[in-house]
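Example 3.2
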Amino acid sequence: MVKYVEKKWEAELGAWISIISYIILAISKLIVGSVAHSDGVKADGWNNFSDIIASIAILIGIKIAKKPRDHNHPYGHSRAENISSLVAAFMMMSIGIDVIIEGISSLFHSGAESAPEPLAAFVAIVSAFAMLAVYSFNARLAKRTNSQALAAAAKDHLSDALVSIGTVVGIAGAQVHLLWLDPLVAVLIGGMICKTAWGVFMETSHALTDGFDEHILTTYKHEIATVDGVKNVADIKARMLGNYVILEVTIHVDPHLTVVKSHEIADEVERLMKQHHNIAATHVHIEPERIP
């Protein structure tokens, strides 16, 4: 239990680092984007602002998920991370749409008079390197803590680094009098925000509706079938509970076995799934094999 709490604390640390980084970058980009007349940098700033909201939602979800089970939550509170991710997806989509609308308005605005100043490109480059550093840190932390929420955040960090690089490209194009390139990049950034939001929504919805990868289930089934004493795997299903897998399996055994021996087979199935796939709970239902 202590190890579990330590992992959750490490996941919280990653979320806090994301929040602090995004606050600094968002404020810097929104200010510099306005001063340097860069729609791309401003859009990137709004992208980081949406990431602040998403990171806060993830942090809240991680904190709630730490709470032990109670009489109202017999399976604990692990799905709080999924719910917070779903809320973050809606927030990100709203901001992405706003950025696209503003970018399109600027793209077709006939009064563009000057290219963005070089300061905008400098801020975008610094942001790209900063996001790569945060991505590297949180990706390693997510692997160590087995936090899917933090792993998703790390992927978003990498996406943000690429967005900043795209912003630099847009500003460079504007410097050679391709003034339409900077607002075009803003539109593309808005599209990337929406794409990320849609991906988070689909993945989270799949988990909340008890969706599970059938190929992984097939792997589980084949491994359980190799356990000594298992005659047949009659049924198998699984669902995600936060970051953990809950597996339910029905196996057939020799009808002449004692209760003790049947229980030992069930224990071996649980041990196998825990050892090979780190499954938190495997519920084994035993039925006698029908003799023809």
